[in-house]
Amino acid sequence: MTNDYRFEFRPYERRFLRSLTTNHGRWDIREGIILRLTDESGKIGWGEIAPISWFGSETLEKALDFCRQLSEEITDEIIFSIPDELPACQFGFESAWEMGSRGAGEKNLNSSSVLHSLRYSGLLSSGKAALNQWETLWQQGYRTFKWKIGVDAIADELKIFESLIQTLPASTKLRLDANGGLTYEEANLWLRTCDNLKANSELPLEIEFIEQPLPVEQFQQMLELSTNYETAIALDESVATLGQLAACHQQGWRGVFVIKPGIVGSPSRLRKFCHQHQIDTVFSSVFETAIARLAALKLAAELSQNNRAIGFGIDHFFEQEDTCFQTLWNDL
Q: Is 115 helix (H, G, I), strand (E, B) or coil?
């Protein structure tokens, strides 16, 4: 039986409180699309399309074009036949469908014990700013941090890194995220530095992994590096979409997979893949609003295997938002 839904959408813009700087450049405004599906009984499902084209998803313009060409009445068949070239659209529409069909409304946003059991990783700004930022996040309860590298000269970043690891409490876990911005030689230097610190018992904290040290096209080199060092490597940009995720697993990657639900594609197909292969995952934000965050956190709670902190500690990059979906919709 095919169900019909009234489909509505509205674009949004959110300005970062401070620019997010990575190897991909500077990011000042987060743009996306909020969508609403209403079934024949009046149940509402909320969804969000939050593309990051430079990370591997469709562009915002393509997502908007897709929404504009749809009629005001859509069906299950349309929702589950969105092409793989539109992974952020797949996530937005399917998560809206799930919310409406399961009656999982916004009232559960902060009440689920499963969601509260998740541990979060706090994102630190690149460069020296991290030295003054971590303490506030620590006081808020974060014990895992991610610091962006591959942004400035490696000699400067290694000096900041040395200061950072001496400052952070001993129980901290630290992730280094290069966003594919290192050369092969630089990746070896970072991995060797982390291994040496661990071997010499000089490291007061745990370096959990180095995230995406090399560009996507250098997968084989990252696979090689993962066997040469004790410090773990996590893939991120290399596994941005379900197709990439499956390809890297097929080519032998058995390390950490960083999954960004907002752009990976179909939630139902992601569940199937994770259940089938029992991969080591870290679920991570795409700087979405509360709408996509709720859907992403439910996936993280369901599919995380090794109790790793999830990468959703990003609230300090935006002004506090209203978590009532209807209010958020009305404010657009």
A: helix
DSSP-based three-state secondary structure for 87: helix
User: Would you call 260 a catalytic residue per the annotation?
Assistant: yes
Architecture of domain 108-317: Alpha-Beta Barrel (3.20)
Catalytic pick from 146, 173, 260, 298?
A: 260
Q: What is the pLDDT of residue 200?
A: 77
The whole-angstrom separation of Cα 229 and Cα 207 is: 13
pLDDT at 143: 96
Does the annotation mark 298 as catalytic?
A: no
CA dihedral 8, 265, 122, 151 (to 10 degrees): -110
| pLDDT tens, residue by residue, 272-320 | 999 999 999 999 999 999 999 999 999 999 999 888 999 999 988 998 8
d(CA 256, CA 303): 14
Q: Is the separation of the CB atoms in 296 and 283 below 8 Å?
A: yes
Amino acid at 314: I
Other beta carbons within 10 angstroms of residue 12's beta carbon come to: 17
Instruction: Outline where 15-86 has alpha helix (H).
Output: 60-69, 76-79
The answer to whether residues 274 and 281 touch, using CB atoms and an 8 Å cutoff, is: yes
- Give the bridge partners for 173, in sequence order: 144, 206
Q: Where are the domains of the chain?
A: 4-106+323-331, 108-317
Tell the CATH topology of 4-106+323-331: Enolase-like; domain 1 (3.30.390)
Tokens describing residue 331: 């404010």
Strand partners, 25: 22
Active-site annotation holder among 146, 148, 173, 298 = 148
The identity of residue 65, as a single letter, is: D
C-alpha count within 13 angstroms, C-beta hemisphere, residue 242: 20
